[in-house]
Amino acid sequence: MKDALYGGVNAAVLTAMNADLSINLDAMAKHCHWLLANGCNGLGVLGTTGEANNFGLHERKQILEGLVARGVPAAKMMPGTGCPSITDTVELTIHARELGCRGVLLLPPFYYKAPSDDGLFAYFSEVVKRVGGGIALYLYHFPQQSAVPFSLDLIDRLTTAFPGVIKGVKDSSGDYANMKAMVDRFASRGFEVYSGSDEFLQQILAEGGAGCITAAGNANSHWGGIVYAKRTGPEADAAQAMLTATRRAATSAPLIPNLREVIARSSGDKGWLNIRPPHLPLAPAAAETAWQAWVATGAIPLPGFATKQAAE
């Protein structure tokens, strides 16, 4: 897809924390800069991997403001702003717009289960009306986590009612047939489809999708950048194979603590192991197993990491 606002590789960025579980903005900004220098076209901050729902509204604003103040380009960030509350979603979305973000990622209202498409349409219609334009809204389809899926018919209604405002979707379902159905049905409207699964990057680009927004991108973005730049051919195929292998390594243990372990060991900064409950760090044996799964892929040491992040 041409002219996608976040076209390419977007890491679902980890949120760095101090020992007291406050936000470590310096470490997070440094990681963001490294990602943008090593294969990422954009940054999905404050999503599932960033533990957004473990932070209050004032903290979420603090994170976004702190990253911008530390030189992370607002236009490169797609922050998660979707909350069960309409007013919270609107407040965070307007805040992101005021800082210069071009788009935000919206979870559905996820507390009440099995809402109707009519109810979800009413919720998003209210968000669009209250935000008032000036920022693109991306839907976050992750039914395993939210238990509230976006049906194709609902996306059809939203894109018809709000063309150019409901701009795209991150599909973290792992169901490629669903991703392709979204591309086939809505890409002609300029609707951007992003895979939440690294193993589908090359395939979805070929089908007309916009790229990916992925957790493993915290560590494998170098190879994602190659796939996006080359698309086809031996180099792209080899890079896609690495994306697939590292995705499997990332999911060989609970995803968020797994990635924190990889970044902590790669950087020598144990602060990356800090994580808010109910998540917990990996136990020592599990941490070593996860690390060795990454080593076995050939991705370790991470390209450019020691010189561009840990050495700073």
TrEMBL record:
InterPro entries (UniProt xref): Aldolase_TIM, DapA-like
UniProt keyword Lyase, yes or no: yes
Catalytic center residues: Y140 (proton donor/acceptor), K170 (schiff-base intermediate with substrate)
Binding site for pyruvate: T49, I213
GO molecular function: 4-hydroxy-tetrahydrodipicolinate synthase activity
CDD domains, sorted: DHDPS-like (cd00408)
Pfam families, A to Z: DHDPS
Keyword terms of this UniProt record: Lyase
The keyword Signal appears for this protein: no
Entry's transmembrane regions: none
PANTHER family, A to Z: BLR3884 PROTEIN, DIHYDRODIPICOLINATE SYNTHASE
Record-stated family: Belongs to the DapA family.
UniProt protein name: Dihydrodipicolinate synthase family protein
The organism of origin for this protein: Rhodovarius crocodyli
Lineage: Bacteria, Pseudomonadati, Pseudomonadota, Alphaproteobacteria, Acetobacterales
